[in-house]
Amino acid sequence: MKFRAAALAMIALAGCEDETPTGAGLYAAYCAGCHGADARGGAAVSDGVIAPDLTILAKTHGGTFPEAYVMSTIDGYAREQTHGVMPIFGKLLETPLETWVDPDGVPTPTPRALLLLNEYLSGQQES
Ligand code: HEC
Fold first, then answer.
1. What are the E-state strand segments in 16-90?
2. From CA 51, how far away is CA 33, in angstroms rounded?
3. Distance, CA 89 to ligand 1 centroid (Å)?
4. In this structure, are residues 93 and 110 in contact, taking their beta carbons and an 8 Å threshold?
5. Which atom of ligand 1 is nearest to 30's Cα?
6. Which class is domain 21-122?
7. Which of 82, 69, 87, 93 is nearest to 33 (CA)?
8. Burial, 111: exposed, middle or buried (Cβ in 10 Å; 0-12, 13-18, 19+)?
9. For 2-36, how does the pLDDT look when each residue is reduced to its tens digit (9 = 90+)?
C-alpha cells in the first residue's frame, strides 16, 4: 500500500515537469499567442499581418490535414511560401527525433515536438 502511494506521488510529480510535453501544452506555450487559444487565428501580428486560422487547414488543403506543410512551416523549411512574420522554433527542433512516415511512405526523422503539435492541430480541424 505504501509503495503504491509513493508510486502515485511520483507519477503526479512527473506530471508537473516539462519533460513530457503534450501537443496542447506546446501549442499553448508557443503558438496560442498569435494563433489564439482556439487556433482560430485573428491576432494582428504586425503591420496588418493577421495570424491565420489553423482550424481550416484540412479544409483548405483538399480535405486532408497537411502534416508535412504544418511541420515544415514550424521548422522554417517552408518559410518562403508562408512566414514573413512567424518565428522559427529552434527549441522545439531540439527535442528527440522520432520516425514519421511522410505521405509518400518515406520514413523521416522528425523532432518529437513537431509531431505532437501536428497531432494536436490535426485534432482541431473543422469537420
Ligand atoms: C509571432 C506570431 C506567431 C507565432 C508565435 C506563431 N505563428 Fe504561425 N503564423 C503566423 C503568421 C503571421 C502566419 C501567416 C504567414 C506569415 O505572414 O508569416 C502564420 C502561419 C502559420 C501556418 C500556415 C497557415 C496557413 O494557413 O497556411 C501554420 C501551420 C502555423 N502558422 C503554425 C504555427 C504553430 C504550430 C505555431 C507554434 C509552434 C505558430 N504558428 C506560432 C504568426 C505566428
1. 44-46, 49-50
2. 10
3. 11
4. no
5. 37
6. mainly alpha
7. 87
8. buried
9. 555 555 555 555 545 556 789 999 999 999 999 99
